[in-house]
């Protein structure tokens, strides 16, 4: 993965005004680093996007963790556990990256728990059968990769670097889902049917993961100008559809869209209209699992309080010891 080409900071533009240095660095495809001057709106946009991204990673653990105890074999269980743990890790990288902008992790989690920051609407759908684990890997992680690979070139350095590692892991997630569905689709009639049913339910919500159409997307144009985003929502959605159609053929499964057809002229697949009312309803909190996800998240946070307290106490003890050693060393050399 080619991602972080240069980390020349705006120091290189010494003498220029901070605004001009920022603009020049963005125009030259250089990375903006935490200590560089940046417009307030750039900072706010990044915090919002990175927080939403981090929240999605940790909330996204829930639908799949639901199947860990019922995985059909030791191999499948080990794969699924690794995948769910990866998502926790992604959350940690992203909260850490967001902290470089001066927002504490506690503050971000409080906002999530209070419903003041969002996570991806896709995680408000239930995982009804084992095949959903496959459909999520193939479609949801697949859509995430399509969205996230360009973020490896995001103008903000810490975000771009976090994405490099995340994307490597996401590609494993996509493959394990694809392989799971392939196994089911080559299995018994009941297994095939289960795989098809999962794809039927996850296809449209996956297309919604790219966000509203370009003409209705509030933040897109500015984010593209700042090189936080590199491609529009519709462009990425089209890319995803074009990738999935041949993969579905290999799987021997059908995508639930009668309008799906190759368009010779455009060189892309045409696809049917997305139900944006459903998307808006889920965003508003009326999806099948919104309530359950946030309740579970708050509970997990409360149950983890003792771990955070212990970690803080441990860190305080070590920093006290460190200070003491430093003082003792100081005396010895005095
Ligand atoms: Fe992830
Ligand atoms: Fe993933």
TrEMBL record:
Pfam families referenced in this protein's UniProt entry, alphabetically: PaaA_PaaC
Keyword field contains Heme: no
Organism whose genome encodes this protein: Streptomyces chengmaiensis
UniProt-recorded Gene Ontology molecular function terms: phenylacetyl-CoA 1,2-epoxidase activity
The entry's keywords: Oxidoreductase
Claim: rRNA processing is one of the keywords in the record: no
EC code(s) of this entry: 1.14.13.149
PANTHER family per the UniProt record, alphabetical: 1,2-PHENYLACETYL-COA EPOXIDASE, SUBUNIT A, PHENYLACETIC ACID DEGRADATION PROTEIN PAA
Superkingdom of the organism of origin: Bacteria
Protein name: 1,2-phenylacetyl-CoA epoxidase subunit A
Enzyme class, first EC level, given as a word: oxidoreductase
């Amino acid at each position: 993965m080619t991602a972080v080409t240069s980390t020349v900071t705006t120091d290189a533009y010494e003498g220029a005004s901070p605004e001009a240095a920022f603009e020049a660095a963005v125009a030259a495809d250089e990375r903006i680093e935490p200590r560089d001057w940046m417009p307030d709106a750039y900072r706010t946009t990044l915090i919002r996007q990175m927080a939403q991204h981090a929240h999605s990673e940790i909330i996204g653990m829930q639908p799949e963790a639901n199947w860990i105890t019922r995985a059909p074999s030791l191999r499948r269980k080990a794969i699924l556990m690794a995948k769910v743990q990866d998502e926790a890790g992604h959350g940690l990288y992203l909260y850490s990256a967001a902290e470089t902008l001066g927002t504490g992790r506690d503050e971000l989690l409080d906002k999530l728990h209070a419903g003041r920051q969002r996570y991806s609407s896709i995680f408000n759908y239930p995982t009804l059968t084992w095949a959903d684990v496959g459909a999520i890997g193939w479609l949801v992680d697949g859509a995430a990769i399509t969205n996230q690979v360009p973020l490896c070139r995001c103008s903000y350095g810490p975000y771009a670097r976090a994405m490099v590692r995340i994307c490597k892991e996401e590609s494993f997630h996509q493959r394990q889902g694809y392989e799971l569905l392939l196994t089911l689709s080559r299995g018994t009639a009941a297994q095939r049917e289960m795989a098809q049913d999962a794809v039927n339910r996850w296809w449209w919500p996956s297309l919604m993961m790219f966000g509203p159409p370009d003409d209705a997307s509030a933040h897109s144009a500015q984010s593209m100008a700042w090189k936080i985003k590199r491609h529009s929502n519709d462009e990425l959605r089209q890319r995803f559809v074009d990738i999935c159609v041949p993969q579905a053929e290999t799987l021997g499964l059908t995508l639930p869209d009668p309008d799906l057809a190759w368009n010779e002229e455009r060189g892309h697949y045409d696809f049917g209209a997305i139900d944006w009312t459903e998307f808006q309803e889920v965003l508003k909190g009326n999806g099948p699992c919104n309530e359950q996800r946030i309740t579970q998240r708050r509970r997990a946070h409360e149950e983890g309080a003792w771990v955070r307290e212990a970690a803080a106490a441990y860190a305080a003890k070590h920093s006290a010891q460190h200070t003491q050693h430093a003082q003792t060393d100081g005396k010895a050399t005095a």
